Amino acid sequence: MFDKILIANRGEIALRVIRACREMGIASVAVHSTADSDAMHVRMADESVCIGPPSSTHSYLSVPAIVAACEITGAQAIHPGYGFLSENAAFVQVLEDHGITFIGPSAAHIRIMGDKITAKETAKSLGIPVVPGSEGGVPDVETAKREAAAMGYPVIIKATAGGGGRGMKVAKDEASLESAFRTARAEAKSAFGNDEVYMEKYLQRPRHIEVQVFGDGKGRGVHLGERDCSLQRRHQKVFEEAPGPSITEEERARIGGICAKAIGELGYAGAGTIEFLYEDGEFYFIEMNTRLQVEHPVTEAIFGVDLVRQQIKVAAGEEMEFEQDKLSIRGHAIEVRINAEKLPNFAPCPGKITHFHAPGGLGVRMDSALYDGYSIPPYYDSLIGKLIVHGRDRHEALQRLNRALGELIVDGIDTTVPLFNALLAEPDIQSGDYSIHWLEKWLEKNL
C-alpha cells in the first residue's frame, strides 16, 4: 500500500480523496494555486505544495509542476479526482515514465475512450449497444447529407474530441444540416484544436443513464447499477439519482452484465462509467468516462461502498473487494449540484461566504469545501457543493432532499438552491417522468 498520495485537484473532490486517505492511514499531499492558498483541501491535507498562479493552465493543468510536487514530497501515487488532468493520457504516460502510480486506468485505456469514434468502435466490438451513426469521422457536408439520409432525421453532429456539449449540434432536416455541420466543426476546432466530427441518430425523448463499473486490471469487472442523470442544462448534469426510476431489474441486470463483461475483457483497472441514452427499453452507448464521476456518492449510498478506497487499493496492486453476487441495492439516493450562480441566467457568482451551515441528519451527506469567511475564487468551475440524500425509497429520498435543502445556509453569494426547491414541486420530478430535454424546456417557461 502507498505511504503518501498527492491529490491533483481542488475543492470538494480533493477533500473527498483526503478523507479516504486518512481513513486508510495514508498521508495526503494537496497541491494548490496561489488563489487557493486558504482553501479547505489545503488545510485538511498532511502537506501542501503551491504549484502556480490562479490560471488552471499554469497550476492544476501543469504536468511539470505536479510531477515536481510529487518528487519534492515523496508521494508515490497521484489521485486526479475529476476534471483537470483526470482523463489526460499524456499525463498518465509521464507519471508512468517517472515511476509514479496513477490512481486510475492505464494511459492506453484513457486514450481509447478519449476519442469518441474509437470509443464507439471499441464499445461495439465488446457487445455494448451503440446509437446508429457514422462509422467514423464525417469529412464534409455532402458526406453528412448521405449519412443523415441513411439513418434518418433528426441527427446530432458531435466533435470526436468533444465533451461538455461543445462541438455538438442538432439538425432536424436537410435544410438545417449544413449550418449545424459547419458550426459544430468550428466549435470543435476552437475548443479542442480538432475539427473532426461524427454523426448519430438524434433520439427524441431519451434519458441519460450511466452504468458504474469497476475493474481489477486483471480481467475481472463488476457493475454497481446505474444512475439517471437526465436533468441537464446545456449538457451539464444538475440532478442525479440511483437507481434510475425508469429502469427495471431485468434491464439493470442485462446492461450491467454487458458492461461488467466488457470491462473485464478490456483489462480495465479502477472506476469508470459507461454512459448511455435510454429510450423505449433500449440502451445506446454515448461514451465512457475513465475516472470517478461527480455523482459517484449516490452509488456509494445505495451500495454502501467507498469507491475512492477501492480505487486506491486496486492501484496499489491489492485485490478488488467487489464481488458481483454480493452487490445489492439498498434504497434510493439523489444528488443535487449546488453552484455559485445567480438565477435566472446562471451567471457565475464568486465572492465571500459570510455564513455556511451544512444540513445533517439521517441519510444526508454534504460534500463541500466551503467554510465561514471563505472567498470563492473566480477562476474555476462554479460547483461549490453536492448535497446527497439517501432514503428507503425514492419518495423518502425526495422528502429528505426537500428537508435538507431547507437546512442548508450559504450566505454572501447567490446559489442554485432555489432551482432545486422549485423542481421538487414539479409533478414530473416527483414521479420521475423526465428526459434529457425536460429541464431546458422547464427553464424556458419558468426562469
From TrEMBL:
Catalytic activity: N(6)-biotinyl-L-lysyl-[protein] + hydrogencarbonate + ATP = N(6)-carboxybiotinyl-L-lysyl-[protein] + ADP + phosphate + H(+)
An example molecular function term from Gene Ontology annotations: biotin carboxylase activity
Annotated Biotin carboxylation domain residues: 1-444
PROSITE patterns in UniProt: ATP_GRASP, BC, CPSASE_1, CPSASE_2
Domain ATP-grasp: 120-316
EC number: 6.3.4.14
Alphabetically ordered keywords of this record: ATP-binding, Biotin, Fatty acid biosynthesis, Fatty acid metabolism, Ligase, Lipid biosynthesis, Lipid metabolism, Magnesium, Metal-binding, Nucleotide-binding
Pathway participation: Lipid metabolism; malonyl-CoA biosynthesis; malonyl-CoA from acetyl-CoA: step 1/1
Gene Ontology BP annotations: fatty acid biosynthetic process; malonyl-CoA biosynthetic process
Coiled coil, from the record: none
Gene3D superfamilies assigned: ATP-grasp fold, B domain
InterPro entries: ACC_Biotin_Carboxylase (IPR051602), Acetyl_CoA_COase_biotin_COase (IPR004549), ATP-grasp (IPR011761), BC-like_N (IPR005481), Biotin_carboxylation_dom (IPR011764), Biotin_COase_C (IPR005482), CPAse_ATP-bd (IPR005479), PreATP-grasp_dom_sf (IPR016185)
PANTHER family membership: BIOTIN CARBOXYLASE, CHLOROPLASTIC (PTHR48095:SF2), PYRUVATE CARBOXYLASE SUBUNIT A (PTHR48095)
Job description of the protein: This protein is a component of the acetyl coenzyme A carboxylase complex; first, biotin carboxylase catalyzes the carboxylation of the carrier protein and then the transcarboxylase transfers the carboxyl group to form malonyl-CoA.
Subunit organization: Acetyl-CoA carboxylase is a heterohexamer of biotin carboxyl carrier protein, biotin carboxylase and the two subunits of carboxyl transferase in a 2:2 complex.
NCBIfam families on file: accC, PRK08591.1
Name of the protein in its database record: Biotin carboxylase
Organism: Thioclava dalianensis
Lineage of origin: Bacteria, Pseudomonadati, Pseudomonadota, Alphaproteobacteria, Rhodobacterales
